[in-house]
Amino acid sequence: MPAAPAALPPAVVFNRWCASLAALLAWFQGLKARIPGFHKKLFAALMGLIMACFSWALLTAYPEKMLTYEAREIVLMSFPVSILGGLFDYLSLFVTLLIARRALATPDNRIFLSCLSIDLLIAVAATAWVLFVFTVSGWLINLALSLPETLGQRQELYKGRFWMALMNPLHPESLRNIYFGVVMGASAMLPTLVHLYHALRVALGALFATAPGKV
After folding, report:
1. 18-61: pLDDT as tens digits
2. How many Å apart are CA 77 and CA 88, to the nearest integer?
3. Burial call 34-56: b when 16+ CB within 10 Å, e when fewer
4. For the chain, does the N or the C end have fewer beta carbons within 10 angstroms?
5. How far apart are CA 149 and CA 80, in angstroms?
6. Which residues contact 68 (CB under 8 A, 6 or more apart)?
7. How many degrees, rounded to 5, is the angle at CA 113 between CA 204 and CA 17?
8. Cα 104 to chain center, whole Å?
9. Is the entire prediction scored with pTM above 0.70?
10. What's the N-to-C CA distance of the chain in angstroms?
11. Are 104 and 25 in contact (CB under 8 A)?
């Protein structure tokens, strides 16, 4: 009677993970070499992505705001939000690439995992950056429109929303704020999500694969 398929050895799994990550880095480097003005176009694309995320989050979470006096302020806010958000995404992408190269350069699987786990901090930093971006952007637009609001007042507004979402996440307003934040942070989490996708793909492949020499 044939034996049940055995899981692949950890060393083989890590080798496949490394190969998958190396292929992704090679693809990115090839893209960078083929496209003239790559960095400018990448930054512009990230800004466009954030503006799209902002529009989608706004229209699905707070559609009523576009029918009030806040509409002009919100539309103007989308520009500094896109610029500052694009800057974070641009820098975090290259930090992620640096981490991936460092991980691939080590022969130790524990160091490999440690390097890639640092990338999870980018997702946490993205949350703080979203709060910072909206605080500064809202204050700058209010300053430009000569509206009576200080930076401290804007900071307290978003701090209050953050703590409300943390302490009472099931409140309807908290759910809307959490959804808005997740959509806005999606672009910053793309490198982390790509890493997780490659890790899960290799792990699932190892579970259903047959180890060499097994029948």
Report:
1. 888 888 889 888 988 999 999 999 999 999 999 998 889 888 88
2. 17
3. eeeeeeeebbeebbebbbebbee
4. N
5. 17
6. none
7. 40
8. 22
9. yes
10. 10
11. yes
